[in-house]
Amino acid sequence: MCYSIVTCYKLKIKSSMPALFLRWTSEFRSASINMTRSIRCLPAILIFGILFYSCKKNSSNNGVINPPPPIKDSSQHNSLTTQHGDNFRTGWNSTETQLNTTNVNTKSFGLILSVPVDDQVYSQPLVVGNLQINGTSHNVLFIATVNNSLYAFDGDDGKLLWNNNFTLSGMRVVQNLDMTGACGGSYADFSGHIGIVGTPVIDTVNKFIYFVARSTNATGQTFVQQLHKVNILTGQDDIPPVTIAATYNGTGDGSQNGVINFDPQKQNQRAALTLTNGNVIVTWSSHCDWGPYHGWVIGYDAGSLNRQFVFNTTPNDANGGIWESGQGLSVDDQGNLYIAIGNGGFNPAGDGIDFGESAVKLVVNGNSISAASFFTPYNVSYLNLNDLDFGSIGSLLIPHSNYFFTGAKDGSLFLLDKDNMGGYDSNANNVYQQLSLGNPNANEHCQSAYFENATGSFVTLWAENDALRVYPFVNNKLGNPVMSTIAGPIGQNGGMLSISSNGKNEGIIWATHAVAPADAEHVVSNGILRAINAGNISQELWNSNLSPSDQLGKYAKFATPTAVNGHVYVATFSNKVQVYGLK
């Protein structure tokens, strides 16, 4: 055994031993404790035992030793505190100084940490840089799971700082089997628990994180959704959570005596939360169009959690969910809200009330919220009858412009004037610009993103069964796309994109998707993380399947990779978040 220990030491970790030994001996000497000879030997025995275990753990069947890379603390301390990084939902982090198109390769870049949690992760991991917890500064990684658990880890070394579970006492987490009428009783959009799903949002000034947790009783008869305001330093509720409840005047599906009640079982809190102008805004869709349901937008005071305003997308009709492939609603510089609404009723007479299959600009004024502009495609009935949701690509406000970008499952793309969206015309779409993917199999279960480089501004997306596309945004119009030759997602789930760059230099598109031949829509599938040169999108710099040690695990659909502080944090359905960085 002694020979094995020495051999392992010489082959594998010789370079790290002197530093470890010197640090230990320095601490030992500073203690100024007289020990017996046998006691002095104990630390050495422990060290060699640890080395032997490390050697054994990292040895493969063929005898080749592959030690894990050393963990490097980040020299950056930036934050990413909302889905896609900002309220425009660009997905672009322009402050990344460590990762670039030169060092992201199989030699220098790979998996450096696996952070274990208690269940699947549907929401995007969030990061607060340089946060003081218990007197120590950390780049803190926040992870929410469908088991209603919230975790805070050191984002550089993976140390657990705190965790807490927010299932109501005496109740259990909601699960897919509780959606008894969804998809005819065979609901598979979720494979298990349905706790915290929508990406939380963080207030870095006041140090709070907001999210919605879901609970039910043992028999699945009583359902509760609660909005939490949790201190990010301690993991404890700052004030008691508020139970989601709302009513809206209308004669639509499920109404009683001219009033629609929020249904905590059927309303799916899928899209990311939004923090703006002192309000936390939450939206809802459905579980597999199981009705009666409606789209809801509810705003809460970020301090007191008192409900401020309520908007219903189809009060005199049905459906109209806001799911946006998990993306949050967009907010412009004036505080106006922009939503993209899926399958649902629309009044061709233009009642200004029911907005199924539409884009809507919402204006908030104190405790009131109202629609200021909208666009509904001329073929709204066709989209609704064929489950071709409008807004499946999410909501994107293009920076330095007056334009809102979204799309639909039929492959359409729309660039809308955010203040004059186009309304409804039964014969034509009177919009600023309309494009098409020209691919009937590209159903846009994906999220669009935006970035800039030295040559201009760009919008990018990666629909399933289609190529990664980058559209130049020139003179306030989208030009012809550049299309990648890299093989991409298939089935009914596209690529989830984010972009990192150092200003307008060294841009990298980070994409996750399920690995073919799997279809992640209803099956938990293996996934892949790709790093693609944003300046040449047919150049793949690296991907997680090139080395067995970099494998992503099970793909988390609609969960965007978080690229910040020299790391890329990727949610998975393997009960962990994978952390990639420089080795």
Outline:
globular
> What is the percentage of strand-forming residues?
25-35%
Major beta sheet summary: 5 strands, mixed
Q: How many helices?
A: 4
Helix share, percent: under 10%
Radius of gyration: 25 Å
Low-pLDDT runs of 5+ residues are 1-69
Average pLDDT confidence is 89
Structural class: mainly beta
Q: Strand order of the main beta sheet, please?
A: 1-31-32-33-34
State the separation between the terminal residues, measured CA to CA: 31 Å
Number of strands: 37
Structural descriptors:
five-stranded antiparallel beta sheet; mainly beta; single chain; 4 helices; five-stranded mixed beta sheet; 583 residues; disordered N terminus
3D architecture notes:
α1 packs across α3. A 5-stranded mixed beta sheet has the order 1-31-32-33-34, with no helix packed on it. Strands 7, 8, 9, 10 and 11 form a 5-stranded antiparallel beta sheet that branches. It is 9% helix and 33% strand. The chain has a domain of 56 residues. With 583 residues, it is mainly beta.
How is this structure best summarized?
The chain is mainly beta. The chain is built from 4 helices and 37 strands. It has a domain at 2-57.
